[in-house]
Amino acid sequence: MLHPTDLKELRDAVLDSSGTLGIAGAGTAADWAGPLGPVDAVLDTTGLAGIVVHNPGDMTVAVRAGTPLRQLQEELAPHHQRVSLDAARVAEGATVGGLVATGDAGPCGLAFGSMRDLVIGVTLVLADGTVARSGGHVIKNVAGYDLAKLLHGSYGTLAVIAEVVLRLHPVPEREATLAVSCSLTEAAELARAVLAGPHEAVALEWLGTTPDAGTLLVRLNGTAAAMDARLDRLRPVLPGAVDGDDRWAEHAAIVRGGPGDAVLRIGVRPSKLPGVLTALPARAITAGLGTGIATVVLDAQDVAAAHETVAAAGGTSVLRRRPAGASVPAWGPPPSALKVLRAVKQSLDPAGRLGPGRFDPWM
Amino acid sequence: MPLDGAARRAFEAVLDPQDVLSDPVRCRVYECDGLTGHRVVPELVLLPRTAEQVAAAVRVCAEHEVPFVARGAGTGLSGGALPVADGVVIGLNRLNRILEVDPVDRRAVVEPGVTNLDVTRAVAQYGLYYAPDPSSQQVCTIGGNVAENSGGAHCLKYGFTTNHVLAVEVVLPDGSTVTLGSDTGEQQGPDLRGLFLGSEGTLGIVTKVTVRLLRTPETVRTLLADFPSVAAAGEVVSDVVAAGIVPAAVEMMDALAIEAAEEAVHAGYTIGTPAALVVELDGPAEECGSTFEQVRRICEAHGCTRLHIAGSAEERAAIWRGRKAAFAAVGRISPDYFVQDGVVPRTRLAETLDRIAAMSRSAGLRVANVFHAGDGNLHPLVLYDGAAGETARAEELTSAIAELCVEMGGSLSGEHGIGTDKACSMPKMFSRDDLAVMARVRDAWDPQGICNPGKVLPTPRLCGEPGKYRPHPLEEAGVIERL
């Protein structure tokens, strides 16, 4: 186990070791994607922690990759600023670098996107010890290639993320959620009505254990002065709606899954979501009816077929929890751009040192 | 190496021969983009009509090692579509169909030659719009927007092209076709779509784009406020941001820019005021109204000398007409001008503008400032008279301003791209290793080096051998470390 505490130690750790390397942050996504193959060493990034520089007036923060997002949010809170990402595993200590490397996002991705939409700069270390940066400290910047995007969803296979610069948003004065009991199909209709109106929901998620019965959650962000009036206008669109502020923990619990569960994150066109989800033998579902991104809890033996079902609907899927010891395919049919992915891997990590197995069997 | 006959014949075999232009007079139309100071007449111009023809043409390029440059409307301001000598230009204007509009899933699928504004026009009937709005949106194409990751006045709140493109179909430099991104924007593995967006045509040619559409905001409120100084207007921006308000747009113009714009379009700006701010808020009616009041109070607290609130859609349009006319309008007060596009952290705006004013005085050239104050993206317009021999001095000042932005902790370019124009300034912003890694990524996509060569990354041929290493300004400030 290598445990660097600054950029120089990180680079030296990469240079002084030989053979394959796994990269580990808080370990909250260790069983996501393909299983890490046997490695000669594991590089623990949690020693690379803390804010490098926070510019409240510019609403940007540079932070070392091993910093838990939860901790970063606490440090930003006195400035009424936040990173607008609410992925379920943030509560478990997920690091900023890990959230980028896994391409994670939560319900408010509807309004703010995923980490790719929030990262404005990155410092990375390649397998040959090269330290490089892209982006910068300003939110608007088109100079050079955006290497942070390349690392988003790379699962530690292309480079070690050492530091990221994030754009921040103001913490809304008030967040409020309305909850409606309904089936998935009914929820899709309600979601359509919400999106067609002027409500500007920041999250629109249905959750349930079967498509026939569950709850639609609609979250608004805004000023304290206007929120009650906005909720009053939203209620008639959601007949029977009640206060749902405390329902998000249930949503997060489904996304995280439990022991023995296989969890799949899928994405299809929003209007296709109810059909695809109904066709899957899911034990629990969260469905982002505005984004088309859903999480399903499955038995391990159903994962391979689920990948096929999603691919047939033109969607994407990735394993987000593997039951201990089970052999479960992490990925479905390969994307058309696989050869680009392989070429980039070959160019940045020709010896295949980083993250072996994570994209098995693609590369 | 000039194009050989075999390559010419091969292009004519995969395209309709009338879509292959070789007459130098006709090819001259394509010799430059919006950066008119750089011109190269291409050997051939190819005007494919379908994505398949684009792929076939690129396959010919790969087979014969012919460099190619993709081109949309040619409105780019950084020379990203400058042709390559002995190469071909692939013009995409004929791929201009809107393939699908889906109001339910709020997206459109368009070909790259569709103009930015035509996307919004095609979806407006559903109460939807396409958010990125570069000033050239009436003519610039979505393909060009993808290449440049274009922004616009409203990207402070709504983000850039990269935040609004879910998927792109791309012809790679070997002529094969792939899809990057997906129906949801989710990518299985690394975000190749994100890397491609803003790669300035150096990684492939986009042939189909799936864009996300937004619902037209219920309420839009716009004000135009005059201030006794640029610094006072800058403080308003800071206070608005500190109050937790994210305006849809915040634009600033200085006296010279106001004078030029007002004389050109008579939009109701105050000639002689040192600075004017345009602030626009949008959103649900309840929220927009109270927040707008708050902005008005902040303006008054900073000595606003005149505050005009748009009372109608026409008045709002007039305010924007003044702002968007500013670039072209300086043509009325100066025979020639260069536009710069650097970005500084918002908190260093006033300091940067002071420095630009000092540089302007010592160069003996006027600089008009129009900029996106909310995100620190400056557009200094360096005014000069080429006929009076001021071109070299103006170019020097322009580069110095871009590099000043880097020194302030910002960027060489916020939305116009690096292209040919600023490639040689890249070492001011990035280290040799940073650039080397970018070059490795580029080589992975384009091992033959035929896809828009000479753009974005500095080359010895273009820029001379790299000089002695100088520490990056952020390194000197202790913000980043160089090992």
TrEMBL record, chain B:
Give the highest taxon in the source lineage. Bacteria
Cofactor requirement = FAD
Q: A Pfam family for this UniProt protein?
A: FAD-oxidase_C
PROSITE patterns for the chain: FAD_PCMH
Please name the GO terms that the record assigns under molecular function: FAD binding; oxidoreductase activity
- Entry's transmembrane regions: none
Q: Where is the FAD-binding PCMH-type domain?
A: 38-216
Q: Which UniProt keywords apply?
A: FAD, Flavoprotein, Oxidoreductase
Q: Which InterPro entries match?
A: FAD-bd_oxidored_4_C, FAD-bd_PCMH, FAD-bd_PCMH-like_sf, FAD-bd_PCMH_sub2, FAD-linked_Oxase-like_C, FAD-linked_OxidoTrans_Type4, Oxid_FAD_bind_N, Vanillyl_alc_oxidase_C-sub2
Report what the protein is called: Glycolate oxidase
Species for this entry: Pseudonocardia thermophila
